Every structure is written in structure tokens, then in C-alpha cells.
Amino acid sequence: MNQLNKTKKSHVPEVIKQYLTFNIGNEHYGLELSQTREIIEYSGITEVPLMPNFLRGVINLRGEVVPVIDLAVRLGRKPIEVQKRTCIIVVELENNEQNHVLGLLADAVSEVIEMDDENIEDAPSFGANIRADFIHGIAKRDDEFIVLLDANSALSIRELAHLVEAQLQ
Q1: Do 105 and 71 meet the contact criterion of CB atoms below 8 Å apart?
Q2: Residue 5, pLDDT score
Q3: 97-112, pLDDT tens digit by residue?
Q4: What radius of gyration, in Å, describes the C-alpha atoms of the chain?
Q5: Which residue, 108, 107, 104, is CA-closest to 54?
Q6: How many angstroms separate the CA atoms of 155 and 101, rounded?
Q7: 28: exposed, middle or buried (Cβ count in 10 Å: 0-12, 13-18, 19+)
Q8: What single DSSP character describes residue 46?
Q9: Which of 13, 52, 98, 137 could make an SS bond with 167 (beta carbons 3.0 to 4.6 A apart)?
Q10: Phi, psi dihedrals of residue 66, rounded to the nearest 5°
């Protein structure tokens, strides 16, 4: 057999990423696990006056003041009503070589899943009722769709700061 006549498939190794999945209402979302720091039980938030409605307030996380964003409001949904499974997902994002810690209010955390890029569809240009730049992609797991958020866009420190400034004026 002539080895030169065989065509070799160039195989690109699959990149498998882990995503923390959670619920907001009846919708399923996910964030890259590498961007999440921890999940804490909801135990109250200190409200800050004159802030936009997506900013629910701040929490004290081991001596660090962490702003808490109602992810439902940020995504154009009704505010989250605090219930037994409501939690705060603490994320750490980098902006201009600085790390920023934010808390995200969610109805419930589901699980950590593993997905490769092959099983993630591009964000649809219509129908999701969320800004397209907020969505990294759509994953299908069993019979449900999980909207994988692009945390750097949905939680852009620069954009959130502009929204807070606009509210104060």
C-alpha cells in the first residue's frame, strides 16, 4: 500500500468549555465557568439610591463591595422576584487590564455542563429578544435550548457605567 496516496484528514482538536447554567424565569442561560468565581445564597442586598433598575444594590463579599445586577432586567425581562432558590452568581471580568467583580441575580443555578464549539450554534439575528451582542451562542441540551451569554458584552463595565451616569443626570 502506498502511504503517499492516502489523504490525511487534518483534525482540529475539539475545544471543550464548561458553562454554568442557570434560570431566569423559564429561560435557560449559561456563562463560561472560567468567568464565574462562586455562587452564593441570596441573603439580602443593600439598595443604592438613584441607580438604574438593573442595579439592585451591593453586597459585602468578605470585605469587598460587589454591585449586584438583576440579570433579568439587563436582558429586558421583568425583575427577579426573590424566592427560595434565588442566588447570586459572582463573576470576575477583565476590562482595561483591571478585574471587576459583579454579582448576578438569578432565579436558580442548574448545573455545570461541558460543550464543544461544534454543538454551539451562532446567535440568531432575530427572535431571542436579547441584544445579539449579548449572546455567544445557543446550545442544545436534551430538549432545551441554553442561551450562552457573552459576559464581556452583556456586562460591559464601560456600558454599565454609562447607564449609571445617565441615570444620575
Answers
A1: yes
A2: 47
A3: 778 899 999 999 999 9
A4: 19
A5: 104
A6: 11
A7: middle
A8: B
A9: 52
A10: -120, 120
Please give the grid coordinates belonging to residue 1: 500500500
Q: What angle (nearest 5°) sits at the alpha carbon of residue 157, between those of residues 77 and 24?
A: 25
Give the three cell numbers for residue 74.
Answer: 439587563
**For residue 135, what is its C-alpha cell?**
449572546
* Among 117, 140, 114, 113, CA closest to 15: 117
> Which DSSP helix (H) or strand (E) runs through 109?
strand 108-116
Asked if pLDDT for residue 57 goes beyond 90, the answer is yes
Strand (E) or helix (H) holding 72? helix 71-74
Give yes or no for a contact between 68 and 52, defined as CB atoms under 8 angstroms apart: no
What is the value of pTM for the model shown?
A: 0.80
Question: Which distant-in-sequence residues (6+ apart) come within 8 Å of 120 by Cβ?
Answer: 136, 137, 138, 139, 148
SS3 149: strand
Classify burial at 58, counting beta carbons within 10 Å of its beta carbon; exposed 0-12, middle 13-18, buried 19 or more: middle
The separation between the first and the last C-alpha atoms of the chain, rounded to the nearest angstrom, is: 78
Grid cell in block for residue 16: 471543550
